[in-house]
Amino acid sequence: MKHMNSEVKEERTSNKKRIDLFLVPIVLIAAFLNLFKIWTDEYANAYYTAAVKSMLQSLHNFFYASFDPGGYVTIDKPPVVFWIQTISAKIFGFHGWSVILPQALAGIGSVLLLYVLVKRTFGVWAGRFAALAMALTPIVPAVSRTNNIDSMLVFTLLVATWMLFRAVRTAKFGWVLAAFAMIGVAFNMKMLQAYMVLPAFYVFYVVATKINWKKKIAFLTTATALMLAVSVSWAVVVDSTSADKRPYMGSSQTNSVLELAFGYNGINRLTGNTSVTGSSHKQSAQTEQQTASSETKQNSNSSADSSQSSNQRKSSSSQKMQAPGGGNQNGMFNTGNPGPFRLFQKGLSDQISWLLPFVIFSIVGLFAGVKFKGSYTTKQKESLFWLAWLLPVAVFFSIAGFFHQYYLIMLAPPIAAFAGAGAVALWSMYKQHNGWKSWLLPGGILTTAALQVYIMSPYVSSIGVAPIAGVGALGVILALVLAVRKQRKNSLTNYLGAAAMVVLLAMPAYWAMTPIIYGGNSMLPSAGPDSSSGMGGPPSTATNSKQSGFNGMQPPGSSSGNSSSNNQMQPPSGSSNGGQMPGGSSNNGQMQPPSGSSNSGEMQMPGGSSNNSQMPNSSSSKSSSSKRKSGGMNAEVNKKLLNYLTKNNTGEKYLFATTDSTSAAPYIIKTGEPVMAMGGFSGSDPILTVSKLKAMIKKGEVKYFYLSGMGKGGQSDVITWIKENSKEIPSSKWKSTSSSAQQGPSGNGTLYEITLK
């Protein structure tokens, strides 16, 4: 106990010391990567931004995280992060950057927390290198620059880690309760993903605390009970509230938060079993991919990015678009194929795996000589914690059936911690000529450089041969020189070791900057020379820059021009078919045009602009706006439609109804008016019935409906009834003819009016 008290006194003394001057530039780097130019993203992820707009309007919407101001349906995640975003928007005003700001600050905070966590046990240089590795892990700034949840989730889990470490040092049970309660808070950010760190928390507390087993079990049981209580607190309140007094729980099939947590946002992510009775969650995944792909062209409108991205984001004119689950060699959303080496496959390796070989060598060095029986040092205990975080999460991503690239931020803290702690440990072993352990440093440098060459090789057309050859050559040379100079102790050896670390971080640093250089994708964030596509795969070599994006996929309302129709992803007609987009029939993995479409070579999405509208070529045109509207396929509203709906509204609650959130979100953001996404995010939620819709129309709650071929899901009866009992509004009254930008719902869809007495 005296030893623990002395550690606490040490901590208080260290806190009074001056700021670590080496940490300052690391924090500035993190701030630059996370904050610079976030003000250019006007809508961010429009699905979530629309929810913030709605939550600003009433406490009812705020509590339930309602997607629309009318309180019709919620978003597909718990509310805590969106509460924070809404508070930020309330303080700073409603902007894209104000909803991104909390995540950007969380990304910076994670860098600082990792420094604090690693420094105390492994030394100041270990803390510095760990913080720098965290800041330069590409997926960290890529997702922190958006209003997606994961950056805040990781920060919260690192706060919980700090509490747990303090609980062990001080032997105070209150800190244990606080640590597990914080995981419960994280659960209310992204549900079961927060529990991925539980093995590390349990293992570390059991190994590190010096109390008897009865107390360990009692303390962990109590802390776990508290965690579960905090986790389900919001869900219990929502699920126990009458369904007619709250919004429908978006993306669930039974209007239940708990079903959403353990199904759609839980076990289904592992199994990839996205089919649910009554509807298909696969449509949600498909809608995300369609939306994110469309953003590629919208991002090209940014005047700040256009001059640099024209030669970087190209699609092969011969490459065919594979539907989700339809056999693309890089898997759904370029997350590779399940297997033990999945994290080294294209699409994932360049987001997170740059330092993995060095981490493996570091783990060997840190655990060398550890005996299963006997006491462990503090370094060994904390190394075990980071290992128990790293391995289960890595296994999950190696076998999971469905996830997005940006989820990989969960691996960033343990990788960065081992990089920092390992760099110092392996250097010490190298300098002390510690037998076979002294070879771990040059071995780690050599294998890491080799992996980085492998990661960069698919991008040779974008980044050139020089950086790839440079990293490979310098890595080999420095590793060999360090191996040869093992017996020498002088300043040159120190410089060589430092140079090796710089080489290993050089390309991750460049990759981390790519969302700034080339533009990012707020729907499906990723890093890399094609980061604005959000698909994370290597760019290809098409010569026509109009084909930039995901395998030549065209945004809504754009013209295919001289592009081959074989390269265009076509919209669905509404039917569901295996691993294709909703409604797409199979033809060698290509998406087919919707039934009745006259644009055989064009990509049309719900809300796409008219056939005459084209997006400006990123290499030759600049946006009329200085901000990127990268929040979804309908990043701008159709002003003519908006004027028509506003003028003809006779007191209806909803401005109009549409099948899914992607058409509704921009109108909610722009006007703050209720817009009904009848089937939730993807259009597949079983919210409406014909009888319920009739009642809403008779009450005068809604009379206008915009319908396209998207998002039918379980709504086919409702949509059929709408078409059979409505009056079609002539397109000349509401469809925009503008050719300068995408104009929201005005493509292949139709506007209907229904009035019932």
Automatic annotation (TrEMBL):
Its main location: membrane. Residues 76-234 form the Glycosyltransferase RgtA/B/C/D-like domain. GO terms for biological process: lipopolysaccharide biosynthetic process; response to iron(III) ion. Residues 282-320, 551-575, 609-624, 731-740 have a biased composition (Low complexity). It is found in: Cell membrane. InterPro entries: LipidA_mod_glycosyltrf_83, RgtA/B/C-like, YkcA/B-like_C. The keyword Endoplasmic reticulum does not apply. The chain crosses the membrane at residues 21-39, 100-118, 125-143, 149-165, 172-189, 195-211, 218-237, 352-372, 384-403, 409-427, 439-457, 463-483, 495-513. Residues 275-334, 527-635, 728-757 are annotated as: Disordered. It comes from the Bacteria. It is a multi-pass membrane protein. Residues 541-550, 583-602 have a biased composition (Polar residues). One of its GO terms (cellular component) is plasma membrane. Residues 641-725 form the Putative mannosyltransferase YkcA/B-like C-terminal domain. One of its GO terms (molecular function) is pentosyltransferase activity. PANTHER family: MANNOSYLTRANSFERASE YKCB-RELATED, UNDECAPRENYL PHOSPHATE-ALPHA-4-AMINO-4-DEOXY-L-ARABINOSE ARABINOSYL TRANSFERASE. This is Phospholipid carrier-dependent glycosyltransferase. It comes from Priestia megaterium (Bacillus megaterium).
